[in-house]
Amino acid sequence: MPTKNPRINITVEEATIAMLTKLAQKENKSVASLTKELIFEAIERREDMALSAIAEHRDSLKSKKVKHEDAWK
């Protein structure tokens, strides 16, 4: 029976699989589930960095300021 979720195959160095295996054993998880978790964390981190860059740009002195109370009217 085919899986409902798409699969990806990646090739990693021996040192990387050794680290993933060791971490997975410590956390009592499979290497696949740990890898999936780490991918989600990396995506969230990149998203946070992108949103931070947008916020910093908007927070520049040249940007229009709106009072907190006015923003919710």
What are the salient characteristics of this protein?
single chain, 73 residues, mainly alpha
Output the helix-strand order. HHH
The biggest sheet amounts to:
none
Oligomer: single chain
Number of helices: 3
Number of strands: 0
What distance lies between the first and last C-alpha atoms, to the nearest angstrom? 53 Å
Find the structural class using helix and strand composition: mainly alpha
What share of residues are in beta strands? under 5%
Report the average pLDDT across residues.
91
Radius of gyration over C-alpha positions, nearest whole angstrom = 21 Å
Shape: elongated
Uncertain ranges: none
Helix amount, in percent?
55-70%
Please, could you describe this protein's structure?
With 73 residues, the chain is mainly alpha-helical. It has a domain at 30-61. Helices cover 62% and strands 0% of the residues. The protein has three helices and no strands. The chain has helices spanning 14-26, 31-58, 68-71. Helix 1 crosses helix 2 (31-58). It is elongated, with a radius of gyration of 21 Å. The mean pLDDT is 91.
